[in-house]
UniProtKB/TrEMBL annotation:
Subcellular location: Cell envelope
Keyword Mitochondrion: no
Domain Periplasmic binding protein intervals: 62-308
Protein name in the entry: Sugar ABC transporter substrate-binding protein
SUPFAM superfamilies in UniProt: Periplasmic binding protein-like I
Main location: other
Organism per entry: Mangrovactinospora gilvigrisea
GO molecular function, one term: carbohydrate binding
Similarity remark: Belongs to the bacterial solute-binding protein 2 family.
Keywords, alphabetical: Signal
């Protein structure tokens, strides 16, 4: 899983007015909030080595490097967004992923060695990726971070961040459970070391206001994950709310609830076809949707605008793609988009 050797980088100026039109449409639904630091590159024009100033190359070459695992439906939607943006802008987008931070760092280094025109990187483990991202920035390659690592994005030199503020999203989910009259929440973390998942649970505890417990599971072992959730519900029947942080774990939680003969309400982060069906069937109360298609699509637009016209988006602050909520009131509409791979 390493970027393949491509021909030497050549660039040409492309009509920036068309890109601006695409960006205006793509960014309509996105809102902004601020990180704690301002990137030194946030308002600066790209260097000469990063401009599309000459050559006959048919578009830019962008690499998207995420921490997702192969076959994960969430990351497939991110990939779909990035690839579609590349097609719309006539840029070449290559997508790579690895759940191991060390391996992800090597993928970033490989992309830099291939002299890509821009990088999109998710940062579930920011310290592990810091050196690689900064090497890209030092090489004159603009970087947009996505999904995780909002707080570190600007400090590492990225020109922007696209994603969901996990603390804000978690707090909103906790409030929804509280409004439903729940009193004891179980927050299920499925990926050790992922800073975003801890932020979700921290936010949920803040918004919920009642008692919150955490359960660590391993998403790579579905049987054990289901057993651990079921065991937690059996051991503490007072748990009346379960929040999972992944759509695949949500399906396991539904089975665990049945196995424990529990009455807890279940909700989840993220969507897939199973989540849509379980909301329709009343097995899930709601889903927190971070609209990850935008996390793939928007950074490609942002990089193209930066290279063609020196534009940045957000004024040094991240572009938020969520939280949006899916429940019985809108699941039929959103479900159509899930089926086609864009939600």
């Amino acid at each position: 899983m390493t970027p393949t050797q491509d021909r030497p980088r050549q660039r040409r100026r492309r009509p920036w007015r068309a890109l601006l039109a695409v960006a205006a449409l793509a960014l309509t639904a996105a809102a902004c909030t601020g990180p704690t630091a301002t990137s030194p590159n946030a308002t600066a024009a790209p260097s000469e080595t990063a401009k599309g100033v000459s050559g006959k190359h048919n578009g830019y070459r962008f690499a998207v490097v995420t921490h997702g695992t192969a076959g994960d439906m969430f990351w497939n939607v991110v990939k779909n967004g990035a690839v579609q943006a590349g097609k719309d802008l006539k840029d070449k987008v290559s997508y790579y992923s690895d759940g191991d931070p060390g391996a992800q760092s090597k993928l970033i280094d490989n992309a830099v060695a291939q002299h890509v025109d821009g990088l999109v990187v998710s940062m579930a483990n920011p310290p592990a990726l810091k050196a690689s991202i900064q090497r890209a920035v030092q090489a004159g390659i603009p970087v947009v971070t996505i999904n995780s690592g909002e707080e570190q994005s600007a400090a590492y030199g990225a020109i922007g961040h696209v994603g969901q503020n996990e603390s804000v999203a978690g707090e909103a989910a906790g409030k929804r459970f509280a409004q439903a009259g729940k009193h004891k929440l179980l927050c299920v973390i499925h990926e050790a070391g992922n800073v975003g998942q801890n932020q979700r649970c921290d936010g949920a505890a803040k918004g919920f206001g009642g008692t919150t417990k955490r359960l660590q599971v391993d998403i790579s072992n579905p049987t054990d994950t289901r057993a651990r959730i079921q065991g937690a519900l059996q051991a503490d029947p007072s748990i009346d709310a379960v929040l999972t942080l992944n759509s695949q774990v949500a399906a396991l939680a539904v089975k665990a609830k049945a196995g424990a003969n529990a009455k807890a309400a279940i909700a989840t982060f993220d969507l897939n076809a199973d989540v849509v069906n379980e909301i329709k069937g009343g097995q899930l109360l709601f889903a927190v949707d971070q609209q990850q298609y935008e996390q793939g699509y928007l950074p490609i637009v942002m990089l193209s605008l930066y290279l063609n016209n020196g534009n940045t988006v957000g004024g040094g602050k991240p572009v938020l793609t969520g939280p949006a909520f899916v429940d019985k009131s809108n699941v039929n509409t959103v479900g159509q988009y899930v089926d086609r791979g864009t939600r």
